[in-house]
Amino acid sequence: MSEKKLYVVGIGPGEYEQMTIRAAGVLSKSQILIGYTVYIDLIREYFPAKECVSTPMMKEVERCRMALEKADQGHVVSMVCSGDAGIYGMAGLILELAGEYPQVEVEMVAGVTAASAGAALLGAPVCHDFAVISLSDLLTPKEQIEKRLECAAMSDLVICLYNPASRRRKDYLKWACEVVGRYQSPDTVCGMVKNIGREGQAMELMTLRELADAPADMFTTVYIGSSKTTVKNGRMVTPRGYRYV
Amino acid sequence: MSEKKLYVVGIGPGEYEQMTIRAAGVLSKSQILIGYTVYIDLIREYFPAKECVSTPMMKEVERCRMALEKADQGHVVSMVCSGDAGIYGMAGLILELAGEYPQVEVEMVAGVTAASAGAALLGAPVCHDFAVISLSDLLTPKEQIEKRLECAAMSDLVICLYNPASRRRKDYLKWACEVVGRYQSPDTVCGMVKNIGREGQAMELMTLRELADAPADMFTTVYIGSSKTTVKNGRMVTPRGYRYV
């Protein structure tokens, strides 16, 4: 085992309890925790003895280089991501940059991503085939996002939207609903979860028509059902198709 | 809080350590654990004092009814699923049947699904938009699966395949590669992980051309990259698009 070690750790939605046992173990033995300020604040209290370095949003490259550099200096470092570090997290960028630090061994520690954690609150919306699509066009052309939304809707996949809105992208969820609505009924069952596992956790079921005007923010995860998705006793369910009657 | 409680618990890929702290807590306080034989065997040793009921594959409806009935009788019951119970797990079917047991409160406990756990081993293959598609046509028409594969490939989504093969479906992965190959290059970066977090864990990177003849089984998770997916120092990476040069 290399002595120079960088862990890229998904802590799950935010609650300590939704972290894996492995993630908690790795964070405990890490000398330095690095991450976006919000995520570091979520876990800081559970790992009090460590040095914590939090960096603001939009500083991803700097944050990843810092983590690799600290690891290269011989510290055991964890890069902390919310959800799963491998799903819109820092895992990819760390591996892109890791070639510059050949002595550092990078290990990923998987976590519960928002698609799973939010689904558990709503019922079972992603219990059959689904697509995970981010509405952020900061790094992805909007036409590409549109094509993915269209193709997912066209093939009747459940769609889980990450980053459905931000201050700059107030109307993107409405736009996404319009794109999906080219193929799916306005009565399609949809759900929305906010602040999963954090203060202010809230969830709501609605139709695609209603979703277009629902207030989403960057801590919201959105589910657009397939044609098979239904509501059972107040829960959003996409059946796999088992026969039970 | 209702006294009649059924937890639907995702235990992650299989290792005790990849379970969430919450899942371990819920399983510890459950009086009865119910699940498919293979999954019950994975966790039985960690929760030795409990009654364990394991049922074979293909008995999903019976298994879910049994869990609901035991909970309705007043036992604290956990339905145990591998990965995340809400992704091709028993969460959906439990909620479909739960209406028959109105006294039972059903709570989902999210886990790390194979898409995340396998990705962590390969690198960061699903670090951008992706589709999760099961190749099992037991409950889904093959034409529907084909359309989803086509649409995912057409819109350059990374594709994560669950259930890529079984004894009955030996040639389905080859077929899926042919469908994806209508839109993606035969040199598309692909990856395959077997027995994640279990004995015999193995992983391999290959091209789409090679994937067609790769030996998959029902404990294999397959990743077909997008046009942007690359190999960095032996790891499969789908970049989000951060600029760092």
Description:
- The structure is a homodimer of 245-residue chains.
- Chain A is α/β, with parallel strands linked by helices and 245 residues long.
- Chain A is 29% helix and 25% strand.
- Chain A contains eight helices and 13 strands.
- Chain A has helices at 21-29, 37-43, 60-72, 91-97, 114-122, 142-154, 172-180, 208-211, and strands at 5-10, 32-36, 51-55, 77-81, 105-109, 123-124, 130-134, 158-162, 189-194, 202-207, 220-224, 230-232, 235-237.
- In chain A, strands 3-2-4-1-5 form a five-stranded parallel β-sheet, sandwiched between helices.
- The termini of chain A are far apart.
- The interface between A and B is large, with 76 and 76 residues.
Overview in brief:
2 copies of one chain form a homodimer. With 245 residues, chain A is an alpha/beta fold.
What key phrases describe this protein's structure?
245 residues; alpha/beta; five-stranded mixed sheet; 13 strands; 29% helix; 25% strand
